[in-house]
Amino acid sequence: MSRKMKNKVLPNLRIERIAAEGKCVAYYEGKVVFVPNVAPGDLVDIRVTKGRSSFMEGEAIAFHEFSKDRVKPFCSHFGTCGGCKWQHINYELQKTYKRQQVIDQFTRIGKVDIPEVLPIIGSEKTQYYRNKLDFTFSNNRWLTKEEINSEETFERNALGFHIPKMFDKIVDIDHCYLQGNASNDIRNSLRTFALQEGLTFFDLRNQVGLLRNLIIRSSSTGEIMVIVQFGENDPNGIQKVMEYLKSEFPFIDSLLYIVNLKKNETFHDQEVITHHGRDFIEEEMEGLRFQVGPKSFYQTNSEQAYELYKVAREFASLNGDEVVYDLYTGTGTIANFVAKRAKQVVGIEYVEAAIADAKINSQINGIENTLFYAGDMKDILNDEFLNNHPKPDVVITDPPRAGMHEDVVKMLLRLEAPKIVYVSCNPATQARDIALLSEKYQIDKIQPVDMFPQTYHVENVVRLILKS
Ligand SMILES: C[S@@+](CC[C@H](N)C(=O)[O-])C[C@H]1O[C@@H](n2cnc3c(N)ncnc32)[C@H](O)[C@@H]1O
C-alpha cells in the first residue's frame, strides 16, 4: 500500500468500528482505512485521500447501506461546523465507544494492566449542556457548494465557528444546540446590529477589522457573562457595540470587552475591561459558590462537572485527616469541593487570575484549610516546595489535554503519595502518564464520564494506589 493509492475508490467497504479521535475504521486487504463522518455498520465506497504503508485515510463518496445505529442529526450546521461530529450516532452507542476508547488507550498506549472499566456516567442533557461558547467574527464566511454554484452574491460577513482545518473560514451560526437560547439570541442580534451599522468584521488573513471574537459564558445559577474582543482600538465603534448589548440584553450580569491587537485571539495577557456589571459570574455546587472570571477555566458542562467531582472525591476517599494536593486546580473548584473532608488542601495552577479566584472561592465559602499557588507545575512542585509543605496523602491531578510534564510525573514518583486520583480529558495522555507511574502505582479503578455528548471526547478518572 502506498501513496499510489491516493484518489483510488475502494468499493463496498463495511465500517467496522470507531477508533481514537472519533474517526471510523474500515479494512481494505487487511489495512486500516480511517474515514470521518460515517457510522459503524455503514456500507460505503471510499475515495482514498491519503495512502501510507500501514494505513489509509479516505472519505465516503457513496452509501449503499446505512447503519442501524444512525440517528437523524438535529442541527442544520451538522457536517460543516466542527462542533458535534457524532450527532448521527445514537447516544447509547456514543457512550459505548467512549468507554471503549478508554480501554483501547490504556491497553495500546499505556500497555498497563487494568481492572474492569466502570460503566460510563452519561450526561442527562445531550443538548444545551455547555456553559461557554467562543464565536469568531470574519469577513470570509464559508459558502456551501450550492451557494458557490448558484453564482449569486452573498453576505460574506459571518459570526460563528471555524471550519475544521481552515483557519480563516467561518461557518455563520444560526442556531447552536450547545448553549441555551440566550446565547443564540445574543449572537444573532449582535451580528444583525453590526451588519446594520456597517461595523467591520475581522479579516483573519490581513488582521484588520473591528469585531473579532465573542465569548458567551453561562452558569448553573443562571448568570451570563459576555466578552467581546475588538481587533481595532476604535472607541466609538466599541462604545456602540457595548451599549447595544447593555440595552438589548439587560440580563447580562458581566459585560466585558478586550482590545486585542495581537495575531491570535488568546487573551490571557490582555486587559479585560468591564463595561457593565461584575467582572465575574458565579457557579453553584452543593451549596458552595464559585466565582468564575473571564480568564478562568471552569469545566464547560457544569452539571457533569458535579458528577465528575463526586467521582474524584469518592476515589480520594477522604476521612478528614489527609493532606491533599490538587494539581492543575484552575479556580480551585476540586480543592474547595473536597476541603471539608480533608485536613489541608494545596492547589497549584498556571493562570494567576484563576488562583486569585480560587482564593476568593475559599474565602466566600468560609473554607480556611486551602492554600493556592500560581506557576508552572514543573517549576512549582520542586524540593523547596516540598520542604515547606506537608507531604500529600492524596494527590488529585487534572492536567490539560497534553497531560503532565515528564518532570511532574517524576516528582509524583518521588513523592510516593499513597493515592493518586488522575482526572483527564484525554485518555491517551493519561494512559501515557500512568504507564510511567505504574513503576510504583497500580491502577485500582477507572471511571469514564461523558461531559461532551455528540462528540468523541471523554473524561476519565483513574485511582492509583501506591504499590506496597
Ligand atoms: C483541565 S483544567 C482543570 C481545572 C480544574 N481542575 C477544574 O476542574 O476546574 C487544567 C488546568 O491546568 C492549567 N495548566 C495548564 N498547564 C499548566 C502548567 N504547566 N502548570 C500548571 N497549571 C497548568 C490550566 O490553566 C487549567 O486551569
TrEMBL record:
BP GO terms, sorted: rRNA base methylation
NCBIfam families attached to this UniProt entry: rumA
Record CDD domains: AdoMet_MTases (cd02440)
Organism: Cecembia lonarensis (strain CCUG 58316 / KCTC 22772 / LW9)
Signal peptide interval: none
PROSITE patterns cross-referenced by the UniProt entry: SAM_MT_RNA_M5U, TRAM, TRMA_1, TRMA_2
PANTHER family: RNA M5U METHYLTRANSFERASE, TRNA (URACIL(54)-C(5))-METHYLTRANSFERASE
UniProt name for this protein: Putative RNA methyltransferase
Annotated catalytic residues: C425 (nucleophile), C425
Xref: Gene3D superfamilies: 2.40.50.1070, Nucleic acid-binding proteins, Vaccinia Virus protein VP39
